[in-house]
Amino acid sequence: MLSITSQYLARYRRFADDRSDSLLPATGAQRRFVLVRSLDPAGRPDLVPMFFAFPQGTIDPERLRAAARRLAARHTALRSRPTVIRGTPVLSVAADPDVSVTRPGLVPGESPAEALRRALAAWDVQGPSLRLFLVRDEEREEDVLAVVLDHAVCDGRSLARIVDELGAAYGEEATDGGPTPQETRAELAAYRDAVLGQLAAEEKAETPEAAAYWADRLHAVHAHAPVPRPARVREGARPGGAAQARLPAHDAGVSFPGLLDACRSAARELYGPDRAVPLGYPWGGRPTGAEPVVGCFLNTLVFPVDTGHGPGSQVAADAWWDDLDHADVPFDAVVAAARAAGSRWSGGLDGLLTVDDDTRRPPLRLAGVEGREVHVDGRPVRGPFAVSVTQGAEIRLRMVWDRAVLGDETAHRAFDVLTRALRPSGHAVQ
Question: Quick check: 333 and 347 in contact, CB under 8 A?
Fold first, then answer.
């Protein structure tokens, strides 16, 4: 029987081989984002926004637009948009990038953050995958710039490069017309080779043994989050809740198993004991030998968090290392394997965990002025809750949640449990 990846490639080649410069295959990670979007009642895409505050008047919008267009022209993924043709997810590549700098006006009584939330909520999936929004904050005498991407065209490893190159393009002369046709063709070929290499790795990973492994690993998992209840969100309130904390850094950093164990404690607070809660996290990288192209290559792995198990990151570590041996199996194939073995799990995730190193995220500099990265909370949340951890001179911990699913009081209790688990006096981490 053909693997899911093999079936996908066969469908893609039937209609796209004669348009291989304008329709590119999607990695397993991209297919997941397209699937999630198609299942969303509102058709919402997963967005990756970065917000930077600059002193008022620093940014020249036309210069910024030209810089963003040059950036997108240099990267195939950034001048593409995810779409579905004959039931098959693909990337549709535009010949010329169309990147705008939108300046949302504030309605009476509206804050800059509310204007940005409104602009992102109106995202049209038929438009470009890279967009910029610029809002004036009169009270702080700042301009807040939002650099926003469709998650299907970039993963976390692409963000540092995007920020760095946007700043560099802003400093270029306006007469610079961007990449030559030869450079564009070379980058497209490098991107296509990277995607095909990723798909080859995924195809190779989809063995009967791997399917049996994930079926056994996830047999007890099914989503435990409460059914969304719009009544939880009072009229006029933001759809997403948020909490954050700064913790002292541990001498040797926080281990990933330690983070998984901390999330287990939070999940127990949210969903109760003796549950097998599906927690997703990104993992992976570009295929061996591929150029470091901008794109979306990180697979979503699923960790079945046992809320009945006592603290102990060693237990999480043992299972996690085994999971990594099967990390190339794409998400849709993992779900299919679990379902084929009789699992009730539909593929929904009760939580998400992302980890970042602040040394990999340079600040955005425009004409020598460094932007201050800020957060715009309250945006809709894709899953019940998501935890992000940034390590550096300190540990920056954030948790967001969907208020239609989880009440604020419960979510804050879970965040407090998570925070205590990651303090130096909590788990021994390394």
Answer: no
- Full strand arrangement of the beta sheet holding 240-248: 240-248, 394-402, 385-391, 351-357, 276-283, 299-306
pLDDT digits (tens, 9 = 90+) for 315-335: 566 789 999 999 999 999 999
Q: CA-CA distances (angstroms) from residue 423 to 187, 234, 254, 317?
A: 45, 33, 10, 19
What rounded mean pLDDT belongs to the chain? 90
How many whole angstroms separate alpha carbon 358 and alpha carbon 372? 14
Instruction: Please state the pTM of the whole predicted model.
Output: 0.91
pLDDT tens string 159-175: 999 999 999 999 987 65
Write phi, then psi, for 170 (nearest 5 degrees). Answer: -65, -30
396: Cβ–Cβ under 8 A, 6 or more apart, which residues? Answer: 244, 245, 246, 358, 389, 390
Q: 3-state SS of 280-345?
A: EEEECCCCCCCCCCCCCCCEEEEEEEECCCCCCHHHHHHHHHHHHCCCCCCHHHHHHHHHHCCCCC
CA distance 303 to 217: 9
Q: Return the bridge partners of 285, or none.
A: none
Amino acid letter, 180: T
